[in-house]
Design brief:
Largest sheet: 2 strands, antiparallel
Keywords: Nucleotidyltransferase, RNA-directed DNA polymerase, Transferase
Distance between the termini: 86 Å
Helix content: 25-40%
Protein name: RNA-directed DNA polymerase from mobile element jockey
InterPro entries: DNA/RNA_pol_sf, RdDP_mobile_element, RT_dom
Shape: flat
Radius of gyration: 27 Å
Pfam families: RVT_1
Structural class: alpha+beta
GO molecular function: RNA-directed DNA polymerase activity
């Protein structure tokens, strides 16, 4: 989050001045250094972002993204800083055209409020039955062409284009058995053989 932009939005939302002053003191004059082996960098000033782990950071992020572009044909999905947009329609052309318009608006918003987008982590997938007759037209975002993937990982859930969840089930099954193969030798090592136990005899 760009600090000056956040402060502007706090003022625009007519928060009490004393709260804005507290938040400004909370954000400004923060510094950082980077240490690599025994080398320490010079002091840098943090002009964006909020302290990780602070209970105030999610609330400020919500305020900052409250004016995120809204479209009647697009559903916005937010979870922390992970964002997905969804569009549906009777034809792929309509869906692609709707998504492209939404991406253009999002790009304008990100440019205005200095939000950096990692296009390497930006993916597109078309959920539908059957097989496409023609190649789907690529989407463009931040001067990058987004290819259509067969599946995408969102919030730990692997979504394939058919929504069969086969890949997600296989991934978790393989992960489960990998854990089991690690645990079994530990269980065997912890088991000790027990010798025969002599029966108790009553005293004569």
């Amino acid at each position: 989050m760009w600090h000056n932009g956040l402060i502007y939005k706090l003022i625009a939302n007519k928060l009490p001045h004393y709260l804005i002053d507290i938040i400004i003191l909370f954000l400004l004059n923060r510094t950082f250094k980077v240490k690599l082996n025994s080398t320490l960098s010079e002091t840098g000033h943090i002009k964006a972002g909020t302290p990780q782990g602070s209970i105030l950071s999610p609330l400020l992020y919500t305020v900052y993204t409250a004016d995120f572009p809204v479209n009647n044909h697009i559903t916005n999905c937010f979870f922390a800083d992970d964002t997905a947009i969804l569009a549906q329609g009777s034809t792929t052309k309509f869906v692609i055209r709707t998504l492209q318009r939404g991406l253009i608006e999002i790009e304008k918003w990100c440019t205005l409020w200095r939000v950096a987008i990692n296009t390497d982590k930006t993916h597109s997938v078309m959920f539908r039955k059957g097989h496409p007759r023609n190649n789907l037209q690529s989407l463009t975002f931040v001067e990058e062409e987004l290819s259509w993937d067969k599946e995408v990982n969102y919030l730990g859930l692997i979504l394939d284009s058919k929504l069969t969840f086969h890949s997600h089930i296989k991934y978790n099954t393989d992960k489960f058995w990998a854990k089991v193969h690690v645990i079994i030798p530990l269980i065997r090592a912890g088991l000790k053989p027990i010798g025969p136990i002599a029966p108790n005899r009553a005293p004569r």
